[in-house]
Design a protein that fits this description.
The complex is a heterodimer of chains A (380) and B (390). By secondary structure, chain A is an alpha/beta fold. Chain A has twelve helices and 15 strands. Chain A has a nine-stranded mixed sheet with strand order 14-13-12-11-7-10-9-8-15. Chain A has a six-stranded parallel sheet with strand order 3-2-1-4-5-6, with helices on both faces. In chain A, helix 5 packs antiparallel against helix 9. Chain A is globular. Chain A starts with 8 loop residues before the first strand and ends in a 6-residue tail after the last helix. Chain B has 390 residues and is an alpha/beta fold. Chain B folds into two domains: 155 residues, NAD(P)-binding Rossmann-like Domain (Rossmann fold); 140 residues, Dihydrodipicolinate Reductase, domain 2 (2-Layer Sandwich), CATH 3.30.360. The longest helix of chain B is centred in the last third of the chain and has 19 residues. Classes of the chains: A alpha/beta (380), B alpha/beta (390).
């Protein structure tokens, strides 16, 4: 158990864009953490972030890991740089890694990231994704306890993007993380593409839909188009049981149970975890990190301190959702033939949108990018 | 008297098969102001005697003889499924205006093909099945979809494993998608995919994914759930449009619409629209009218009304048809074929028209033999209290 006299966790941020700053700020707010170092290849970002966090700055993570003893590494990077940074952090002997999503660009990279951390016993988690919200773990516990009877099927009411880190990860979550037996899938764009959106003038594979049969007998359908029932909800999901349903919409999370032949909502079950005002600033001028981000930090630190369950979007769950997304596209490539998991060909690639794979400053331009950073702290 | 047998109604109706359901059909025609039951054919003399006495009509031991001797406008073959294909084909050739059989329509695709072809060739309206697709609330839902109330239909969920050649849920899904042809499907069954049996029997429920030629996608869930049953009428279907949703549950049909300026993919604030649908489910127990007849279900009356309206006005028939049931059967068989081939995608139309999916024995065969005479006759007798207490 950690005590007041236990040393604080030394946190390093790799990639000081606006998302990196939000994550680092959430760690800085935690009484058990201090942000001690930042690495960024872009000197402009580095200058801003080191001034704000009053910490050491490095132009490469290799140098950072050489010179600083780090407990928690936060690679918050363009996806193309993510695998290298996560693996380097694992090799540097950190206690935990928390990265962003999408997770990787190839299945091999995703495997490598998971394996390098796992073999060293280093917890790896990532993403501002619904799986990091406590309410979805509460929902899972209620479902495991039989609150909606036996789960019969799951609907993902929208097409999947970003390597499945939202919808497919949620479906796996509520399928109790069962392995997948087989899938049939389809793509809204050109399934032969390795890219989610337009790349070198060629169309991407677009949104992925499909049918997923889990080894525990559950099935999930991923609709090829957004259903207005849930549209706009990140990680939209509906879990259908023999005695009730669980779903989310813009009003929050809902659990309905069959009562006298009618589905009735169980009231006051879930709190509204959503951040309604994205522009809350604290008294020091920092933009307040989203509740989901803060919860991720708390969960990770509790896990390190006490060994409590890592109820987060882990590297393994991100990799498995990514593999599932690739499998859906493989099925589309093979004329919607069923594809069995796990995938044998680990060299398969699936790149996220151009703007997520690459450095956003190069994609969207300097001014817009710096505006995003400036919005993270007043008077920056 | 509620009914007047004046032998001068506009449309002369004959029933083939005077069992319990045939009697139910016949009673609905007799209650229709434009129709009158004038003849019945049944190979079973006992059934024939009861029917002709009840309906004061001519009786024949074969439909061939009946067609030779009677001039008919509407024929209702209400038969064990094994006899249905030949009876529909014979009816279509008899110079009638409409044929209205019950479901499942048949077992074999080639039989379904010749039933549809013979009706189309002779310009005969081909109604088929007393099923939710015919009911006023589902027709109202279809009107709302046509009026653009939920935007363009994009996905349909069915929350009930399909049986009986898909005559209930798949047929409803087809209606909501304007009876567009399917392009391909993948599918699975709950039991042994190699069986030629029915979804309700050996196959134990048929599910799958269907992509229609207009891009609409259909998801048929494998297991029953809380979303799967809504009384006799509600079928656990969800029609998802670009701007709203129509669905059925244990309370009946419902509609919810997104805000006026909603764009797909943005936040949709879906608002329930109360008071649009009446609770029209056939939930009431059987009751009898003052003549002693078991009251027809609202679904039966609506089915006959839809058929007669099409005959009378020449407008397209707003009910389940032989064409739609054939499509539903073909999709069910396609889903099973996909499972047989390791869940490979199956393209439509199916090339092999000899493929077959038999309904459960009690639907395929004559129920009097399956259940025994006593139980069967109890069912027939329950359609009318023949000597009502005054």
């Amino acid at each position: 158990m950690a005590t007041k006299s236990s040393p604080k966790y030394r946190v390093a941020l790799i990639g000081a864009g606006h998302m990196g700053i939000q994550h680092a700020r959430a760690y800085a707010m935690h009484p058990r953490c201090e942000v001690v170092a930042i690495a960024d290849t872009d000197p402009e970002n580095l200058a801003v972030a080191t001034r704000w966090f009053k910490c050491a700055g490095y132009s490469s993570y290799d140098e950072l890991f050489k010179k600083d003893k780090i407990d928690i590494a936060l690679p918050i990077l363009p996806v193309r740089a993510n695998a290298g940074a996560v693996v380097a952090a694992a090799k540097a002997g950190v206690k935990a890694v928390f990265c962003e999503k999408p997770f990787a660009g190839t299945l091999e990279d995703a495997d490598r990231m998971v394996a390098e951390c796992k073999s060293r016993g280093i917890p790896l988690a990532g993403g501002i994704v619904p799986r990091n919200y406590p309410e979805y773990w509460k929902a899972k516990q209620l479902i495991e306890a039989g609150e909606i009877g036996e789960v019969q099927s799951i609907t993902i009411p929208e097409p999947n993007g970003q390597g499945g880190c939202h919808g497919l990860a949620m479906a796996r979550h509520f399928a109790l993380d069962s392995d997948v037996e087989w899938v049939t899938g389809w793509a809204s764009g050109d399934p032969m593409s390795d890219h989610e959106d337009t790349w070198n003038g060629k169309p991407g594979f677009g949104g992925l839909g499909g049918y997923i049969r889990f080894k525990n007998g559950l099935e999930a359908f991923s609709l090829g188009k957004h259903s207005p029932r849930h549209a706009g909800v990140t990680g939209a999901i509906e879990v259908i049981g023999s005695k009730g349903v669980f779903y989310n919409d813009i009003k929050g999370l809902h659990l309905q149970k069959l009562e006298g032949g009618v589905l009735k909502e169980v009231p006051d079950l879930f709190t509204d975890f959503r951040q309604k005002d994205n522009n809350n600033f604290d008294q020091d001028g920092w933009r307040v990190p989203s509740p989901g981000t803060q919860h991720s930090v708390n969960t990770l630190i509790d896990h390190l301190d006490t060994g409590s369950p890592l109820n987060l979007s882990t590297g393994e769950s991100l990799r498995n959702a990514y593999e599932l997304a690739i499998a859906l596209r493989e099925s589309a490539r093979r004329g919607n033939a069923p594809v069995r998991l796990s995938l044998q060909d680990r060299s398969l690639k699936m790149y996220p949108e151009f703007g997520r794979w690459n450095y956003k400053k190069e994609v969207y331009g300097h001014d817009k990018y710096m505006e995003g950073i400036a919005a993270m702290k007043k008077g920056g | 008297m509620l009914t007047i047998k004046n032998k001068s109604a506009k449309y002369r109706v004959a029933i083939i098969g005077g069992g319990r359901m045939g009697t139910h059909h016949a009673r609905a025609y007799d209650l229709h102001p434009l129709c009158e039951v004038v003849a019945v054919a049944d190979t079973d003399q006992e059934n024939l005697d009861i029917f002709t006495r009840r309906f004061e009509c001519a009786g024949y031991s074969t439909y061939d003889e009946m067609f030779r001797k009677e001039k008919l406008d509407i024929v209702g073959p209400v038969l064990p499924v094994k006899a249905n294909a030949d009876a529909v084909v014979a009816s279509a050739r008899a110079g009638v205006k409409a044929v209205f059989c019950d479901k499942p329509m048949t077992a074999r695709l080639s039989d379904a093909d010749r039933m549809v072809a013979e009706c189309e060739k002779n310009g005969v309206i081909f109604g088929a099945g007393v099923i939710p697709r015919n009911y006023p609330e589902y027709q109202k839902a279809k009107d709302l979809v046509n009026a653009g109330e939920i935007g363009n239909v994009q996905s349909i969920n069915i929350y009930d494993p399909n049986g009986q050649g898909g005559c209930h849920n798949l047929n409803l899904a087809l209606m909501f998608n304007n009876d567009i042809d399917p392009e391909w499907c993948t599918g699975w069954v709950g039991g042994d995919p190699m069986s030629d049996g029915d979804g309700d029997g050996d196959l134990k429920g048929i599910g799958g994914f269907v992509k229609f030629k207009n891009g609409v996608e259909l998801f048929s869930h494998r297991r029953e759930s809380v979303k799967s049953k809504a009384g006799e009428q509600g079928q656990g279907i969800e029609v998802i449009g670009t701007k709203g949703v129509i669905w059925s549950d244990s309370k009946g049909l419902h509609i919810a619409k997104a805000q006026a300026d909603y764009k797909p993919g943005t936040l949709a604030d879906l608002k329930y629209q109360p008071g649009v649908f009446e609770d029209h489910r056939n939930l009431k127990g059987r009751s009898y009218d003052e003549e002693g007849w078991a009251n027809c279900t609202p679904g039966m009356l609506a089915s006959v009304a839809a058929l007669v309206e099409a005959v009378d006005t020449g407008k397209p028939v707003r009910m389940s048809t032989g064409q739609s049931l054939r499509k539903a059967l073909e999709i069910c068989i396609g889903m099973r074929e996909s499972h047989r081939r390791g869940h490979a995608p199956v393209k439509f139309p199916l090339e092999d028209r000899s493929l077959v999916m038999f309904p459960v024995t009690a639907r395929w065969e004559f129920k009097k033999y399956v259940y025994g005479r006593e139980e069967y006759m109890k069912d027939i007798m329950s359609r009318k209290i023949d000597a009502p207490a005054k």
